Amino acid sequence: KIYSRIARVCKKDPGGQTLMRDTWTTFSKARLNCSLPGEFPFYYDEIQGAAYNPDEGIVYATFTTP
After folding, report:
1. What predicted TM-score, i.e. pTM, was given to this entire model?
2. Cα–Cα distance for residue pair 50/61, rounded to 1 Å
3. Strand partners of residue 60
4. Are 32 and 61 in contact (CB under 8 A)?
5. Residue 36 has pLDDT above 80, yes or no
6. Do the Cβ atoms of 65 and 44 come closer than 8 Å?
7. Phi-psi label, residue 55: left if phi above 0, alpha if psi -120 to 50, beta otherwise
8. Can you give the residue ranges of the Sema domain (predicted)?
């Protein structure tokens, strides 16, 4: 089963001061759950692309279905 995720790393992430030097400390990821309600839920799991609009604070994504 495929579960698409979106990840984020801050552009100027220097890592930790000593313990995690040169290791991303701002890395985070999230699973996008874009399903339709109903008796038989349909999940859009296969993400093809994503873009963030900083003016709106919204992530836009395009999906395909199997």
Report:
1. 0.51
2. 4
3. 51
4. yes
5. no
6. yes
7. alpha
8. 1-66
